[in-house]
Write a structure and sequence with these properties.
Elements (H helix, E strand, L loop, with lengths): L15 H4 L6 E4 L2 E4 L6 H20 L4 E5 L2 E5 L2 E3 L3 E5 L6 E2 L5 E5 L6 H13 L4 E6 L6 E8 L2 E8 L3 E6 L2 E6 L8
Parallel strand pairs: 4-7, 8-9
Antiparallel strand pairs: 1-2, 3-6, 4-5, 6-8, 9-10, 10-11, 12-13
Amino acid sequence: METNRKIPEYLPHYTVDDWETWERGWELLNGIPFRKEPQPESRHMDVLENIRDLFRDELKSVNSDYRPKLMRNCFLKDDVVVAPGMLIDRKFITGANIYSVPALVMEVISPVNKKDITAIKRLLYETKKIPYCLVVDPNSLTPEVEIFCYRENRYVLDVAGFNLSYEFKIGKEIITINFQKIEGEL
């Protein structure tokens, strides 16, 4: 009896080509399909839109070539398609799909999109050396944001909280995002 078998060999392994034939609403994480939340909850969307607006306004104020985009399919490898809540990419890249490595990704935790899936996605973002990964939990009374920075070949949790300002280097520009600005709007 063979005892060295590993579970992954029993799991199906899908690629982007497979993913493209499926109906909408799926992410592909290292060849394994994950169903996306059908419709983000109201609080989830409020957080996404408010944080997107903070980044958009700051990036415009410095005439940046980058813009935040909500819920776009991002192709990281031939077996990885993710749809982060928000990503920041060059403003001239349009359409529903992103094929370049974004400058920042943000995941918003919801009852469907639990921390474990977010942690898996964060590891995938790390392999692409995406400079910033934000994880936002709007489900508590006071929302929390965790800001991970790519340093020395891995993500490091730089700061967590919501009553904070943080400097991001996006492209050539440095912008300051004051998350406290949106606390009263949630």
